[in-house]
Write a structure and sequence with these properties.
With about 260 residues, the chain is of the alpha/beta class. Helix content is about 45%, strand content about 25%. The longest helix is centred in the N-terminal third of the chain and has 29 residues.
């Protein structure tokens, strides 16, 4: 059963009206209590490895915000529904007025410093690398990087998990090399808990955005949280660029953002 075109128009307008009523009730409640709820739709990996290390700063910046989460354990995507703000990746040409670009999708192989040290020894080179993957779709991710293409590194085995938060944790613990989404791992790169396995980046045609539901007014407090998150992410990008200048991360991000402006 599908809605007719007239039905879709009616559904959209009724949804906008109900969302407006819900937002008004929420604003009235927040004025009465002094607490404003903000719901984020983000991945467990981003929450665990980027947001949690700076939660105290976020709470200090927004003491009246009751932060709530809609967590996604696999690949982030899907409709935003009734959340206030969500992190999503969009293809070029898909950007809408309800999204703000944060950074292009940037990928690089990462591991912990001890693993990298051992990888330089003759014994480890001969043995090969343990490659950590999230699912079958990324099982051959290593073949996209020059070190594996030229066979200066080779795969000895594969560790597979269905949650990217665990993939990053395994890399932090020295279990092997993981494909790093920079928007998730940049905190650990800035802290040098993770290091680039190779001085090579892949920049895709997707953009990491902070988005809100179409037709839903953006409350002022949500806009403030959004801008704080973007500023913090850009600060981390600058720190990573300073720590690993050979990567050229800063230039890659600026070029990617400029191409979408």
């Amino acid at each position: 059963i599908e809605l007719t075109e007239n039905g879709r128009i009616l559904y959209r307008k009724i949804s906008e009206g109900l969302n407006g009523i819900e937002d008004a009730i929420r604003e009235i409640e927040s004025r009465a209590t002094g607490i404003e709820p903000v719901t984020l739709s983000i991945s467990t990996a981003f929450t665990t490895h980027w947001l949690m290390p700076r939660m105290s700063r976020l709470n200090q910046a927004f003491p009246s915000v009751d932060l709530r989460f809609q967590l996604i354990s696999g690949r982030i995507g899907g409709p935003l529904g009734d959340v206030d703000l969500g992190m999503r990746f969009v293809q070029e040409g898909e950007m809408r007025e309800n999204s703000v670009p944060v950074m292009p999708e940037v990928l690089l192989p990462v591991c912990n410093a001890r693993y990298q040290e051992l990888a330089r020894t003759d014994a480890r080179r001969a043995h090969g690398d343990m490659v950590i993957v999230m699912d079958d779709e990324e099982r051959g991710w290593h073949a996209r990087f020059a070190a594996f293409q030229k066979e200066t590194r080779h795969v000895a085995g594969v560790l597979s998990f269905n949650d990217y938060a665990i993939v990053v944790q395994a890399a932090l613990l020295g279990q092997g090399i993981a494909l790093g989404w920079v928007n998730v791992v940049m905190h650990w790169l800035a802290q040098r808990a993770l290091v680039p396995t190779e001085d090579e980046l892949l920049v895709t045609n997707r953009m990491c955005c902070l988005s809100w539901a179409p037709g839903r007014p953006l409350r002022p407090i949500v806009a403030e949280v959004r801008d704080w998150l973007i500023a913090e992410m850009h600060a981390d990008l600058d720190a990573v660029d300073t720590a690993y200048p050979a990567l050229g991360l800063g230039a890659a991000v600026k070029k990617g953002l400029a191409s979408w402006s």
